[in-house]
Write a structure and sequence with these properties.
Length: about 525
């Protein structure tokens, strides 16, 4: 067999073998199963796993931005007019949140931990100086005291009203950003502290939060079932809370928002427990995004999360007073805020009933700026970008016995909103890129084999066609050479010459004729 034929057949056979092998591996799912098993084994909260170190001490920087609503017409509002606010901020803090007291329990199936949070001011990312910028806002301590006494007798409320008046207490006060965030000694609370020591004499929206934790969490490691990776088992020793009216509302579902299982789909519902809200929420797929070249699925809370019980029966348990249930987009969390009438919503009442934003001049909800979201890589479940946005409001309503509240009509008044955000750092992104590239190549190895097989088959076909063309050219050349070589030799040895009729030969009557005479070869 000629060498060229061997090359054609060898290439074709190799191509067929590669195609058959690739298809067989693809059907069996061998490489995909290997990758899946490897990732499930590595993405666990166990010593030595790929993610355990970053779970204990997350490298991406977390930033907390605080925005305050400064009330520009408090006097007019108290007279019954529409309040007007302008937004101050951001006041940005770097948030450090390493895990502490990490302990494996139940034979390593679960792990317990605390998450102390420390905040450090970042002036270059802030719009002002929190120690100098003053904000006029709702006097939350005064509102909390009045709300606490709303069911008390007339004389108790009247006495407290006169006491508050003697201290110069009003519905609004002005303090620096630092004081409102981290605390100051309030005159009213200080006096009450002397009477009732359990009353804290200081007030601050983030009072005692710097360096504190949300309590101990116990998480599933995911070693037994990858779908349980990072899922919360208990919070503060409880599997079920007792704040709300129904077991469904009191359930502690999902993760704490820092860890999610691998192989996410666009159809699944992600549950997240938020200690700030004292409840669990869920998030649904919105769209695909890319962060530093990494594919991510964006999950966001739908409108149903903060919908009223009448529009979402799942939320009926969050209304503790059926006669005064709130409408869509807000949640009364007074039950876990020591009785203070705190209402939580998304910034600018995003996804809330239109009446809440319309009641305040200066509010304008915008999807891009006020949406909470998680951008998760679907293969690993790793958060590559996230933003948790929430607004703190105070319910201002009339309380009999307190004249200063006579013109109030149940306004949900915004005080501050925050934006807690994180983006994966470059080093972590590079490692994730490498891992995803390896996983992609391994998972698509059967396709690579099939592609190589097809290429080799095409090459073998081209070689075969070229070989056939060469054979035809050789046969044609041999035929032409054979045709010309024989007759040409005979002709070259013969000369043609005309012969004239002889005059002295009367017997010849044919005239001129052609005679052949041999020519000697030179």
């Amino acid at each position: 067999m000629p060498r060229s034929s061997c090359a054609v057949y060898g290439t074709a056979i190799t191509g067929v073998i590669l195609i058959v092998t690739g298809v067989a591996l693809l059907v069996a799912g061998v490489f995909q199963n290997i990758i899946n098993k490897r990732l499930k084994g590595e993405i666990t909260l166990t010593e030595g796993s790929k993610v355990f170190g970053t779970w204990k001490n997350p490298p991406p920087p977390v930033f907390m931005e605080f925005f305050f609503y400064n009330v520009t017409n408090p006097k007019e509002f108290m007279e019954g007019k529409k309040p007007r606010v302008n937004t101050m901020g951001p006041y940005t803090y770097r948030e450090y949140r390493p895990k502490a007291n990490v302990t494996f329990v139940e034979d390593g199936k679960k792990v317990s931990a605390l998450t102390p949070k420390t905040f450090v001011f970042v002036p270059e990312l802030s719009a002002g100086d929190p120690s100098k910028d003053n904000v006029t806002t709702v006097n939350i301590p005064a509102v909390a005291v009045m709300n606490k006494l709303k069911d008390s007798g007339f004389w108790v409320k009247s006495g407290m009203s006169m006491f508050m008046g003697s201290l110069g207490t009003t519905m609004f006060f002005t303090h620096t950003v630092n004081e409102l965030l981290w605390g100051f000694e309030d005159p009213l609370l200080s006096r009450l502290h002397k009477i009732k020591p359990e009353v804290d004499e200081k007030f601050g929206l983030m009072l005692d939060k710097n360096g504190s934790t949300d309590g101990e969490f116990v998480y599933f490691t995911g070693e037994q079932n990858y779908l349980e990776y990072g899922r919360i088992d208990t919070w503060k020793g409880q599997k079920l809370m007792s704040f709300w009216n129904t077991n469904q509302s009191n359930m502690i579902n999902g993760t704490d928002g820092s860890a999610f299982h691998p192989f996410l789909t666009k159809e699944e519902r992600l549950d997240v427990f938020t200690a700030d809200l004292c409840r669990s929420i869920h998030m649904l797929f919105e769209k695909e995004v890319k962060v530093k070249g990494i594919l991510a699925y964006r999950y966001t809370p739908p409108r149903a999360v903060l919908a009223s019980g009448k529009n979402n029966p799942e939320n009926e348990g969050f209304c503790l007073d059926p006669a005064n249930c709130l409408d869509d987009g807000v949640l009364n969390v007074a039950v876990c805020r020591k009785g203070a009438p705190v209402i939580v919503s998304f910034p600018h009442f995003y996804l809330g009933d239109k009446k809440y934003a319309d009641a305040i001049d200066g509010l304008s909800p915008v999807h891009e700026h006020h949406q909470t979201y998680l951008d998760l890589n679907p293969t690993t479940g790793v958060p590559v970008r996230a933003a948790k946005r929430a607004q703190i409001n105070i319910l201002l309503d009339r309380v009999t016995g307190f004249p200063m509240t006579r013109n109030l009509n149940g306004t949900v008044f915004p005080v501050m909103f925050l934006n807690e955000s994180v983006v994966i750092d470059d080093a972590s992104a590079a490692r994730l890129h490498k891992l995803l590239t390896i996983a992609f190549i391994a998972a698509n190895f059967p396709f690579i084999l099939v592609a190589l097989g097809v290429i080799l088959l095409l090459i073998s076909i081209l070689l075969y066609i070229r070989s056939c063309q060469k054979k035809r050219e050789v046969k044609r050349f041999d035929f032409v050479e054979a045709y010309y070589s024989g007759p040409t030799t005979a002709k070259s040895e013969t000369a043609y010459s005309p012969v004239c009729a002889k005059a002295d030969d009367p017997g010849e009557k044919n005239g001129t004729y052609v005679g052949l005479s041999p020519v000697e070869k030179s």
